[in-house]
Amino acid sequence: LLVAWMMNGHAILYTGVTAAFWTTILVVGICYTIFDLGFRFDVAWFLTETSPFMWANLGIGLAISLSVVGAAWGIYITGSSIIGGGVKAPRIKTKNLVSIIFCEAVAIYGIIMAIVISNMAENFSGTTPETIGARNYQAGYSMFGAGLTVGFSNLFCGICVGIVGSGAALADAQNASLFVKILIVEIFGSAIGLFGVIVAILQTSKVKMGE
Amino acid sequence: MPYVTELKMAVGRMVAVRNATAVVVLLSVFSAGKCNEQVPLMMWSSNGFPLPSQSAPLAGASVSSRQLQSYLSTALSSTPQNVLLFLQDKLSVDDFTMYGGVFGNKQDSAFPNLEVALQSSSSSLLLPSVSSLASVALPSLLQEQMDTAPLYLDPETLAQLRLNASLPALLIFRLPYSSGADMMSTKEVLSGNDEVIGQVLNIMNGQSVPYTAVYTAFRPSRVMAEQPMAALSAGGRSLLQSRQKDPADPYPPVEFKERGSSCILLWAENLTISHFHSGKWQRHDLAPRTFGEGVSPDLEGSFCNRTHSRLVLNYENVLMYRSFKLIFEMSQRHYKVSARGWFSLDLVKLEYDGKRASFNGSRSIYAPVEFSYHCDSVTSFLYPQLVPFSSKDNANDWRLFFDDFQIQGFNVTGKDFSYASDCAGFFSPGIWMGLLTSLLLVLVLTYGLHMVMRLHTMDRFDDPKGPAISVPQTE
């Protein structure tokens, strides 16, 4: 059974990558310890030496990309169900498009936040931690956090709305009166994406990058 | 190609040979030539008289005079006592590579007679790397071994000589070598030498006298210079600690001793100060007065105790100031979170004629207390590690430049620095940023791959035994 499991391409890939990753970390950690160079492992140095621009742009990228992944996933789940159910019950086609729109809204949240966050990125002329200043670091980290927040919220919101929408389409195909009740569930699912957007806006409200 | 067969070395040496060794060692000490030059040596005997096989030297190892002595004594113990010694001015293994027709062009070889002789002899001894001191002393070595005087000959003289197989004879043939700018002349010289060897061997064979022949040289014709470790060009990263510009640092560090034991060490390759005075910057190089072999700057005023160290360098007549002091103040304390002690260079002060300027260095010049701090460039101007203490401080009119700076203020043992905690780490911030972003993208790629690999063709309605699907062309 173990051999059969190992023959799976996925298993080989993931075990290989995981083993390589943990081996690297283990070896690096052991080397640091043996040579008494543990003082070189400095998280504060990493956080202050890496550019706030990297963090800001990672946040922007993650905001839009994770939101789009969520939206795409939701639409694919719902879409397949609508199309499949629509073969036998064509009347469900138009009504169930609202599930698709709920999923699409998630992507729109993502792109709006990405544009809002990217407008906050300004140039600054410092090169050392002292000259960059605390405010620029705060800006970089806030933008990263906001991007993560909206991205992951929208990702799971999109999946949720997609699965519920798929169930709604199939239930509607069976019994037309079920659709409106299930829509309530979808609305609750969609609200969580909105929460993510609100929190992200709060995070970036105090951002002021620049001189 | 000649081959050397394996055999255990003969045990025991005669007393005479041991004395000869002492003479040879003395001779090699006084003879000209560097110890690290090697020449090849070939030894073969005429057909029917094989050399006793001996263990070859290890690859890359150079045969010293003593080892050559033992090789010769073993070889000559059972071979003909007529020794032909062909001594060329210069010879290297590279000569055989270049002119020996080894790249498939045997017809271009400059050593046809030599090859024939080696192949036709029953056994040969090939030492690719004999120390040139040993080869220079070879005539005297053989003279001692065989107890006869050497005869310096050329082929014409040899033809007129009557040789006896039972009497020992040492015949030395000097062969020239020219390494002129044009290679053809070298090849011609080597071909000429090979002709001489051929003639001599023919004469010996014609007289039916068994012989032992040795072909070697006084000096190598090509010496590979040792390449120093290349220092990378400006802009390239390098391991700053191990820069091999001078393999051994030419001068010791500035050392402050308190009560006989070293307390503070300071080293730099260059120390320059600049002062902004009357509208322009004036530079002064303090390195000749501070660092160098035999230079001992005045360290009065320095002190060190368990938690604080101060190094004071006193100068006179620097720029336009009568007295000038450069003061390094360091302190150390134990930090609980990292559970070790750290020291930092708190202040670098300049005191000149009663005025003072202070630079703060504690922000970037720090290291664990057991180690020293090293940085390739410590300046107050370019990527400054030394910052004026305040915006109104006199230090704003001064600039300090240290090149290849290393300092240690605590835990100093002797006059060597401890391990240097360098200002440049293994990964730069840019590398870390790249790694982080790449890791993120690799995760994205992995997830995408995972999804794509889970797509399967629908096979729920496949029926291998049923009729194949037919898609008619017409409506």
TrEMBL record, chain A:
The family note in this entry says:
Belongs to the V-ATPase proteolipid subunit family.
GO cellular component terms attached to this protein's record: clathrin-coated vesicle membrane; proton-transporting V-type ATPase, V0 domain
Q: Which UniProt keywords apply?
A: Hydrogen ion transport, Ion transport, Membrane, Transmembrane, Transmembrane helix, Transport
The record's note on quaternary structure and interaction partners says: V-ATPase is a heteromultimeric enzyme made up of two complexes: the ATP-hydrolytic V1 complex and the proton translocation V0 complex. The V1 complex consists of three catalytic AB heterodimers that form a heterohexamer, three peripheral stalks each consisting of EG heterodimers, one central rotor including subunits D and F, and the regulatory subunits C and H. The proton translocation complex V0 consists of the proton transport subunit a, a ring of proteolipid subunits c9c'', rotary subunit d, subunits e and f, and the accessory subunits ATP6AP1/Ac45 and ATP6AP2/PRR. Interacts with IFITM3.
Domain V-ATPase proteolipid subunit C-like, first and last residues per copy:
58-117, 144-202
Q: What is its main location?
A: membrane
Biological process, per Gene Ontology: developmental pigmentation; retina development in camera-type eye
Q: Does the keyword Disulfide bond apply?
A: no
Gene3D superfamilies registered for this protein in UniProt: lithium bound rotor ring of v- atpase (1.20.120.610)
Tell me the CDD domains matching this sequence. Answer: ATP-synt_Vo_c_ATP6F_rpt1, ATP-synt_Vo_c_ATP6F_rpt2
Function summary:
Proton-conducting pore forming of the V0 complex of vacuolar(H+)-ATPase (V-ATPase), a multisubunit enzyme composed of a peripheral complex (V1) that hydrolyzes ATP and a membrane integral complex (V0) that translocates protons. V-ATPase is responsible for acidifying and maintaining the pH of intracellular compartments and in some cell types, is targeted to the plasma membrane, where it is responsible for acidifying the extracellular environment.
Task: Tell me how this protein sits in the membrane.
Answer: Multi-pass membrane protein
At the top level, the lineage of the source is Eukaryota
Q: Per the UniProt entry, what species is this protein from, by scientific name?
A: Electrophorus electricus (Electric eel)
Which Pfam families does the UniProt record give? ATP-synt_C
Name of the protein in question: V-type proton ATPase 21 kDa proteolipid subunit c''
Q: Where are the transmembrane segments?
A: 12-35, 55-76, 97-121, 141-171, 178-202
Location in the cell = Cytoplasmic vesicle, Clathrin-coated vesicle membrane
Q: Does the keyword Transmembrane apply?
A: yes
Its Gene Ontology molecular function terms?
A: proton-transporting ATPase activity, rotational mechanism
From TrEMBL, chain B:
Compartment(s) where it occurs, according to its Swiss-Prot or TrEMBL record: Membrane
Cited InterPro entries: Ac45_acc_su, VAS1/VOA1_TM, VAS1_LD
Q: Does the keyword Membrane apply?
A: yes
GO CC entries = bounding membrane of organelle; cytoplasmic vesicle membrane; endomembrane system; proton-transporting V-type ATPase complex
Q: How does it sit in the membrane?
A: Single-pass membrane protein
Q: Where are the transmembrane segments?
A: 431-450
One GO term of the biological process aspect: regulation of cellular pH
- Keyword entries, A-Z: Membrane, Transmembrane, Transmembrane helix
A GO MF label? ATPase activator activity
Ranges for domain V-type proton ATPase subunit S1/VOA1 transmembrane come to 425-463
Q: Which domain of life is it from?
A: Eukaryota
Occurrences of domain V-type proton ATPase subunit S1 luminal (ranges): 262-410
Family membership, please give it: Belongs to the vacuolar ATPase subunit S1 family.
The protein's name in its UniProt record: ATPase H+ transporting accessory protein 1a
Q: Which organism is it from?
A: Electrophorus electricus
